[in-house]
Structure formats: structure tokens, C-alpha cells
Amino acid sequence: MKILVGLKRVIDYNVRVQVKPDGTGVVTDGVKMSINPFDEIALEEALRLREAGVAEEVIVVSIGPGAAQQQLRTGLAMGADRAILVKADEEVQPLTAARVLQALVEKEQPGLVMLGKQAIDDDCSQTGQMLAALWDRPQATFASEVVVADGVATVTREVDAGLETIEVDLPALITVDLRLNEPRFVKLPDIMKAKKKPLDEMPLADLGVASGNFVNTSTFAPPAQRERGIMVEDVDGLMSALKDKGLV
Question: Could you tell me where the DSSP H helices lie in 27-113?
């Protein structure tokens, strides 16, 4: 069985994001870029399934500029067998990403597609669900535990009321949550080996997917600065402060 894993190139989670002065976006020049952390967890789980004998091949996929090769090479260094980069210099929104992944799914015929539950740059949490609908296959989202056996994935997922366990027939799509695993550390020899692993590139147009955007962002702005807190002596002081602000 093949496992297809999506890796999105995002600003590293340790970087303090700055909005451009003209409000047209965020500053990315000279900024460290990394694999979306949720996607990295999805890849780790796919590798563990391969090591357990459940899968034979793990393919990592990214959609973006040529620089996204760096994130795919990191995925190969973690242990993926090969990589595919769908080149797109413009913004790729969730529906476009889902259509690209659908085209790759039809080409590669994986038994399982694994994605992070969301990307940390837009927090959309839409691509996985859209792909499952386009693919017309079952989905299990926000997975915190995954067991695959006999053509069925048993997934424990995080919901508002706690945990829920469901079973989905393969082929299926799974999006993963932070508690699923801890991604492995990449060693230098693995980085060197990754340079020799296959990485195919193709333009977005080769998959027959239009690159149009369906949501337009008019401007970007940093969050409002938080007001300085105040210290109160007792409960009466707290109530008085809350009344002054119209909160009670």
C-alpha cells in the first residue's frame, strides 16, 4: 500500500510573523521556512506504518514555489521514499490544493492519504475534508491514534466532548492532531541520502487544475496590542473594575 502525505511550506513556528507596511501580506524575505508541524506529524505516522509493515511506500507531496524542494528534501531525510513538487508561484487556497491532491491520488492510487489537520499560516482546516469529498472516500479527521489492519483504519479522534473512535475502510483520508506522535530527529547521514532520492517536479497546469483563488484578502493587519493589566486588592476591587469596563 502507498501512503501519500502532504507537506505544506510555512513560516517556521518559532518566527515572529511581521505584517508588511503596506498590508499586502506578511514578510517572508529572509525568514526561516519549515514543514507545517501538523504535516510533519502526518509524515511521522506514515513512516511508522511503513516500518510496521502496513505500507510499502511513502510519498511526500508539496504545492508551491521551487523553494518548497527544501521541505520535501527534509521529508525524504525523515524517511519518505520519493517526493512530488507541484510548482505554483501564486497563492494556493484549500480548494485548489484539494483538487491538485485529487489529481495525484488518481495518478498514484494510494491506499491512504495523510495530512495535518490544518496549516499554521492560514488555520483553514479545509483541504483534507475537501479532498475526501472530491475523492469520494471516507475521512477521519483530527486523529490522535491510528491503527491500520485488514483494510480498515481505526482512528481515535479528538472532538469537543473528548475522544471518539471510528473505523474507515481504505482507501481513506486521515488528518492528524498534535498528540498523535513526536516526529523523529533528522540525522546528517539521512540528509545526505535524501539528496539521491527521486523528487519529481511538475507545473500545476500539467494536472489540469486551474489556479484561481476563490477568497480574496483585502488587507493584512497585526493583532491589536493588549492593554496592560491592572492589579486589584480584593474581590470588591475586581467587581468594580469589571463594572467600569461594562463586563458585568
Answer: 37-51, 69-78, 94-108
